[in-house]
Amino acid sequence: MTRHIFKRLLPHPMLTLLLVVVWCLLNNTIGPGAIVFGAILGLVIPAVTAPYWPDRPSVPQPWGMLVYIFIVLWDIIVANVVVARIILFKSNADMKSAWVRIPLDLRKPEAITILAGTITLTPGTVSADLSSDGTELLVHALHAPDPDAVRDEIKSRYERRLKELFE
């Protein structure tokens, strides 16, 4: 009985925590008012949207996801420097942009979404399309003299880790 009440009040505890943190960050304060209002949002939003999440995704390895987040953050920092150098010091004729097709080993929609978001968040690349059967991702790279190397790096650096986390 208590578990059922807890599940109704907190259907997505991690989302609740995330909403409280994001609310405090948006308000640029960790004052009691921001925390209380963030907690209210963190309780109401997941409770109202719970019926639309019938298959709640689970992350079996939260520490693995944390490692993945740090890898992505590091890659974003490095890619910002690389893209700035490309823009500042390469002429348009020297840039070799390319469309890269990435065959996916991932099958879970959540993992594919995180992969596509990771690619788009990293400066210099953007996820453009997912094939209708979900087996291939189309990515545009700002500078890719070797498109196969871009594909291999995405598969080994991101997709492999997401496959370990989700499948």
Automatic annotation (TrEMBL):
It is a multi-pass membrane protein. The chain crosses the membrane at residues 62-88. GO terms for molecular function: monoatomic cation transmembrane transporter activity. One of its GO terms (cellular component) is plasma membrane. The keyword tRNA-binding does not apply. The keyword Nucleotide-binding does not apply. Its main location: membrane. Coiled coil: none annotated. It is found in: Cell membrane. Keywords: Cell membrane, Membrane, Transmembrane, Transmembrane helix. Belongs to the CPA3 antiporters (TC 2.A.63) subunit E family. This is Multisubunit potassium/proton antiporter PhaE subunit. It comes from Palleronia aestuarii. The lineage of its organism: Bacteria, Pseudomonadati, Pseudomonadota, Alphaproteobacteria, Rhodobacterales.
